[in-house]
Amino acid sequence: MRKLGITLFLLLAGIGAANAETGLKQGEYACYGDGGEVLIGLGFKVLPGGNYTDLDNQSKGTYAIDADNVVFHGGHLDGQTGRELKDGRFRIGMMADCEPYQ
């Protein structure tokens, strides 16, 4: 019973394995085209609270996770939807893949 109570608390608080697998990690993201080349202009930084900014901190917006999609509002990615989100990586546009910058 105690384990069930803890699990229920974590789910209600938005914490758990599913959230860790599908969310975005805070920090800088880079996007790569076919062949692994960096796509200038698509990079961004994930900030706390569902916020993001371009790499120059000039264009700010928000994002929301909807199942395995990342939906951007405002900022330089306004109206874009990343899809196939898994382990902090996703696809955006026709052939670009975005992931935490190492």
> What's the count of strands?
8
Our count of domains comes out at 1
Count of helical stretches: 2
Q: How far is the first residue's CA from the last residue's CA?
A: 42 Å
Radius of gyration: 15 Å
Reading the helices and strands in chain order gives HHEEEEEEEE
Low-confidence stretches: 1-20
Assembly state of the chains shown: single chain
- In CATH, the architecture is Beta Barrel
Brief summary:
The chain is an alpha+beta fold and 102 residues long. Helices cover 17% and strands 41% of the residues. The protein has helices at residues 2-12, 17-22; strands at 27-32, 44-47, 51-54, 60-66, 69-74, 81-86, 89-92, 96-100.
Secondary structure topology:
Elements: H1 2-12, H2 17-22, E1 27-32, E2 44-47, E3 51-54, E4 60-66, E5 69-74, E6 81-86, E7 89-92, E8 96-100
Antiparallel strand pairs: 1-2, 1-8, 2-3, 3-4, 4-5, 5-6, 6-7, 7-8
Description:
- The protein has 102 residues and is of the alpha+beta class.
- It has one domain: Lipocalin (Beta Barrel).
- The chain has two helices and eight strands, in the order ααββββββββ.
- Strands 1-2-3-4-5-6-7-8 form an eight-stranded antiparallel β-barrel.
- The protein is globular, with a radius of gyration of 15 Å.
- The model is unreliable at 1-20 (pLDDT under 50).
Feature tags:
102 residues; alpha+beta
